[in-house]
């Protein structure tokens, strides 16, 4: 549909498809939301191999919510949430526009939005084919104006990193799943003080994000199915995690990876020194899922306890026990535990 009536609005063609609330009077709702489509990629390399996937706009669909020729720069806008009068929940599907799906649009960048105070839940969901995830970036403070926003959900797009605080302070639940997220560090003055539930599962995180330990109101944390292999935590961080009502930190479901982890741990266990542990013999499967370390262990107590057991009679046996104790615990004479054990086996 033509928008010559909006020609007085100064619309600027963007470098990449942008979700914005600056709709240049083309979308008539009180709280407009639209996608400003780019005419061409800012970097031609972005266009290679995608068959012009991201730069088709919406006019070809002939949907009523697509407004073309906006202003002197002939912008092409797709109006979203046009019939959502209550504005309590916005759900946006990210995929090429379709005539029969008014809320499906293809944006690559989220501008700083002016959100209605009635909005409680904002959801962005990638609905493209499984082999393609739309790359998505955010302006600083993109959702910060959402004074009533409590829940945010971002699914099945490619985000990779969040390194500034794009969220409002009043957010209580945040879900970012299957986005290839590697970095979650929303820096800034607002550190999500009201957040109670954080779900970053099924991403590419390699460690627990440090910001997690600054979330004072957090009660639920979901980090399962990431790339977290080792978690080096301080005592205060461990204490923080223990206080959570829900903690899902499953590291891996890959049996081969779990076996590799067990084999890597074995040399470390073999270096352990304990008065009752003589040697590590190997590993043994208890069942399909449980592997145990097999060790030679003194089940009657430590060697020192045995050597110093009450038995004060002046006998050859006690003399050898006293000699074995002195040899074992004299720093200048430190034989192997097996040697001392063999010596004790010959006690009369």
TrEMBL record:
Coiled coil region boundaries: none
Provenance organism: Pythium insidiosum
Any Pfam family hit: LRR_8
Repeat in keyword set: yes
Entry protein name: TKL protein kinase
Domain of life of the organism encoding this protein: Eukaryota
Keywords in alphabetical order: Leucine-rich repeat, Repeat
């Amino acid at each position: 549909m033509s928008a010559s009536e909006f020609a007085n609005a100064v619309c600027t063609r963007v470098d990449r498809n942008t979700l914005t609330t600056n709709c240049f009077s083309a979308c008539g709702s009180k709280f407009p939301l639209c996608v400003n489509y780019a005419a061409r990629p800012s970097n031609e390399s972005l266009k290679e191999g995608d068959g012009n996937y991201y730069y088709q706009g919406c006019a070809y669909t002939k949907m009523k919510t697509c407004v073309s020729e906006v202003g002197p720069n002939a912008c092409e806008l797709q109006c979203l949430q046009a019939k959502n009068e209550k504005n309590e929940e916005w759900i946006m599907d990210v995929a090429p526009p379709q005539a029969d799906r008014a809320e499906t649009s293809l944006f690559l960048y989220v501008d700083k939005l002016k959100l209605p105070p009635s909005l409680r839940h904002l959801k962005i969901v990638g609905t493209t084919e499984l082999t393609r995830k739309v790359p998505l970036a955010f302006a600083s403070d993109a959702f910060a104006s959402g004074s009533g926003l409590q829940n945010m959900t971002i699914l099945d797009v490619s985000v990779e990193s969040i390194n500034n605080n794009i969220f409002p302070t009043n957010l209580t639940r945040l879900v970012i799943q299957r986005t290839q997220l590697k970095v979650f560090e929303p820096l800034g003055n607002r550190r999500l003080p009201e957040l109670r539930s954080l779900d970053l599962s099924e991403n590419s995180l390699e460690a627990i994000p440090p910001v997690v330990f600054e979330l004072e109101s957090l009660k639920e944390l979901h980090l399962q199915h990431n790339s977290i292999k080792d978690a080096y935590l301080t005592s205060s961080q461990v204490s923080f995690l223990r206080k959570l009502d829900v903690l899902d930190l499953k590291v891996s479901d890959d049996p081969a990876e779990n076996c590799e982890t067990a084999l890597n741990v074995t040399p470390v266990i073999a270096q352990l020194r304990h008065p009752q542990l003589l040697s590590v013999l190997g590993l043994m499967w208890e069942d399909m899922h449980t592997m145990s370390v097999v060790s030679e262990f003194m089940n009657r107590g430590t060697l020192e306890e045995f050597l110093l057991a009450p038995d004060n009679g002046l006998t050859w046996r006690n003399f050898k026990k006293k000699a074995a104790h002195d040899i074992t615990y004299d720093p200048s004479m430190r034989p192997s535990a097996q040697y001392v054990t063999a010596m004790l086996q010959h006690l009369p």
